[in-house]
Here is the input.
Amino acid sequence: MHLKRLEFYIGKLSKKGDINMSINPVVRVSQKFDEGNDIGLITSGEDKYIYDSDGKKYLDFCGGIWNMPFGYTNLAINEKIIKQLNKLPFCNLVTNIADIQHNYAVRLCKIIGTGAVLYTCSGSESIEAAIKTCRKYQAIKKSSRKGISAFPLSYHGTTYGAMSVSGIDQVLLEDYFPLLDNIMWIDLPKDLQDEDIWIEVVENHFKKNAENMAGIIIEPIFGSGGIVPIPEKVFKRIQELCSSNDILLVVDEVTTGFGRTGIPFAFQRYGIKPDLICLSKGISNGYLPLGALAFSNRVVETFIEKDATLEHFSTQGGNLISIAAADAVLDLMEHYEDYEVAAKGEYMVNYLKQLLGSYKSISVRGTGLMIGISFPKDLDAERLLDVWAKIRKRGLLVYIFSNPGYNLGLSLFPPFTSTKDDLKKAADKIVSLLKRYPDIVY
Ligand SMILES: Cc1ncc(COP(=O)(O)O)c(C=O)c1O
Here is the structure.
């Protein structure tokens, strides 16, 4: 069974108007959430916990939806939001620029080493803008290249361009065809840890397609693709091939950015210099919608030299209140080391390995607080959903991945405020449950 990750659930109000989780007026990605789900409406949050209408408490290791590293009640973020709200809530970016829009862009560029920032409202929109930039960049250089390369295990969002480059959902998207054309898939090695085969595959892709490639989009660690890191050597080789062929390297840091992987931005680990960086999620700690596309100095200079423009705008892109939240996140990032994200992640991975290491059917991996537990590949996705629901019932929220042919399992994005004790207790909960499934743990 292919788990329909993107099955938008269109329900309706029941006659009585009461909330029944199987008849819901909110259109959302269902992921079969409603089956066996007895969580009431969520009514409040505190640090790493959320509470439902029955007063039940959940430890949120989904971290919102991977976007709340600093938890639900970070007063420093609230304070900056309120201050900005009282000072100036909106500024028309077509004709003006607010102090906070300017200052935040400068601050972010200094941290990530880029030359300019385009504000967006979401990760998907940042990807749209990146695809457009790749094509526009080639056009202003008088190149006819339109192709965008991506990996089959990637997920980049749900707007048309973002969907078109999201490998893992292609099989589910037929009803929406045609998607963007000139999308080119890079094969993946069967063994995702075999760096030499990865490099061979990547080199072959460039050999065959470089003439048509405007850009390549990469998540440093496939998130929805099962918490699979792209090996450093491969990333570096891609950078070299992009540079020598004048192809733009787009790094999607929507999930990995703002400290999730034990370093402020995952690309920094590899010592590479992306041409474009897509950001969202943790940028505002999930408090308000915001995204950004950051451009390298090289790309900015090319646009300036050619007197070229990028036709992209959305009214709420760069909303001042959202930027205030983002600015507070950068304040928190100044004390990033205090959260010990890398050490906590290592602790949890090692502890899970200690508990599950004797079972060949399970593998555990993680970078920082982005952790994956893979089940046997051929397990029916219904079994995964069953495990998932039971973990929820134990008061712990995690996420799942299901990529037929590649992997299937649980993903964990603990908030940075989680203690080692939280991590240990969550691991104990998951493992004690898994041990009841002889078709998963053997
Ligand atoms: C790596 C990655 N890119 C892009 C997106 C899309 O972001 P958004 O949901 O804000 O549009 C996501 C969302 O999960 C993501 O994980």
Remarks:
- The first strand starts at residue 8 and ends at 9.
- Residues 122-124, 127, 155-157, 219, 223-224, 252, 254-255, 280 surround pyridoxal-5'-phosphate (CB under 6 Å).
- The chain has two domains: 33-66+340-434, 75-333.
